[in-house]
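Sequence only, no structure available. Ideas?
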Amino acid sequence: MNWLTLARLIPLLAVFAVAAYQDFRHGEVSNKVWLYAPFGLALTFADLFLYTPFLWPYTLTSILFTVAFGLILFYFTRGFQGADAKALITLSVSFPLGGFLWFYPLTAFMFAGLLVGLAWLFHKRKTVRFLPYLFFGMLIGLV
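Reply:
I predicted one. C-alpha cells follow.
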C-alpha cells in the first residue's frame, strides 16, 4: 500500500465517520462534509498516474458504475436519500478499488445493505439511517 492510498483512505474514513454521526444524530448530513470528493478524486488520479497506470480501466468502470448506481437509487427509490447518494459518489471517486481489484464502493454498499437488513429484522423500525451502516460496511470491506 503506497502513501497515496493511505492519503486517500484515512481522510475518507474520517469524512464518513462525521457523516455517519451527523446522519445518526440529526437525520441530515451537511453538504460541507462532501467537499472531500474533489480532493479524493485528485488523489485517485495522482495514484493512477504515479503508481498504477494499468488500473485505469478498472478504476473508471468502478467510478462510472457506482455513480450511476447511486443516482439510480436516489431518483427511483424512496429510502435512498441525497446524502446517501453523495456518500456513494464520494466513496467511488475517492477509493474506487479495494484489494484484489474489487469495486470497493459496491462491496461496502453490499455489506451496508446486509447490516441494514439485519437492523430492520431486529429493530422493527420503519426507517433506518443508511450512512452509519455504510461506514461500518466500509470498515468490513477493508478487512
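Residues 39 and 50 are 16 Å apart (CA to CA).
Hope that gets you unstuck.
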